[in-house]
Amino acid sequence: MIVPTLNSATGDLVVRLNSVKVGDFKNLLCILFPKNVLQRPTLQQPLHDKDVWISGLALSTMLRMNELREFCVGCLQHSSVSVTPIEKVVLGRGHAVRALFLDGCEHLVSQDEQLSFRDGVELGMEVAFKVSCLREERLRSRNGSEEAITGSRLEMKFATELLAIFAENSEIEGRDVDLRAIDDESDWE
CA 2 to CA 20: how far, in whole Å? Predict the structure, then answer.
């Protein structure tokens, strides 16, 4: 929340960003104003570690800086920034980023290893259960039909989560959404 106040000693207007950590704000400034202007981050060469991009995503979402938000999402999806599939799911759900959420879920479904208890706690039990069911379904089929678990099949399984992301993302972008206009999730499963 942005709260402008007047500094009584100097008469200057001070803007406080309540609930923003100093480190996160410094990371945002690193993205906006790199030390070396010739080395500006690009989607092809993000330059920063994932913590900088996570801070950038969080603050750009909070401050409704949509272009910067999209840039941070792109950098978090870049292969040189090592974001785990579980982090992608958590970030996607927490910051209303459908692409990160689905990318993380798809990777988790396609891996052969089981989710650990800790993974389940981080993902939330409902998402962990859905990922595990899809993973087991994929492992049972083993006839090369992994594509059946990706794309629209994945979207149908996570319809509830994607609907929440859609609604929150619309709010972030300042659009009104009538959730009643969207089909009931039971039709998607």
Answer: 10
Assess contact for 86 and 104: CB atoms under 8 A: yes
DSSP 8-class letter at 185? G
Q: How far apart are CA 107 and CA 26, in angstroms?
A: 31
**Which residue, chain included where needed, has tokens 């859609």?**
166
187 vs 102: CA distance, rounded Å: 20
Identify the H or E element spanning 14. Answer: strand 13-17
Q: What is the pTM of this model?
A: 0.71
Residue for token pair 């920034």: 81
Structure token pair of residue 107: 């990777």
Phi, psi of 145 (to 5 degrees): -95, 40
Distance CA 110, CA 134 (A): 9
pLDDT at 150 over 70: no
pLDDT at 157: 76
Task: Name the residue among 86, 89, 111 with its Cα closest to residue 102.
Answer: 89
Distance separating alpha carbons of residues 163 and 39, to the nearest angstrom: 38
Q: Is it the case that residue 34 has pLDDT exceeding 70?
A: yes
